[in-house]
Amino acid sequence: MQALTNRAKSVDRRPMSMWERMYLPSIVKGMGITFSHMFTKNPTIHYPEQTRSFSQVFRGLHVLNRDEEGRERCTACGLCAVACPAEAITMEGAERQEGEEHLYREEKYAAKYEINMLRCIFCGLCEEACPKDAIYLSETFAPAHYDRKGFVYGKDNLLIPNPLTDKEGYDKAAGGRVRVAEKV
Ligand code: SF4
Ligand code: SF4
Fold it and tell me: How remote is the CA of residue 181 from the centroid of ligand 1, in Å?
């Protein structure tokens, strides 16, 4: 029969020799492997005191972005929800009222924006789909919760702090990924 890959190994079905039936070589070999690991660097990381460094392309928790004037960028167009293969995003749009120009960048904004982190596969397609640079996946990963509701993140969890009133919180939430520079 033709093999699909070249990874198949033929099984040695010859009867074991006397030496092999004593299992001593195998035990010595196994102990050798065990002892060799005693002198290698311990890969365990003592989280949360220690954190590992992630790859540049690591995709963690979502952040709803603001512009440099602290206004919410999201215009509730729904493209991120349409692009999401896990149907993890729900939102409700609202019209910006007079006097709210300092809160919302566009005439329409997301009054409610939720991501179910239990459904999310952190693919980043919502970030790719967004025409307003309003959502991106940060370097932070989702903390643990005791119930399922805790994994449904609303605007209170997702919205980045206002850079005008909380620069430190904004920089911390933004990490190295935030893209404040205008592209729209
Ligand atoms: S990262 Fe992927 S799965 Fe998660 S909300 Fe965005 S599009 Fe959906
Ligand atoms: S995050 Fe972006 S794609 Fe999603 S609704 Fe807001 S503006 Fe549209």
Answer: 23
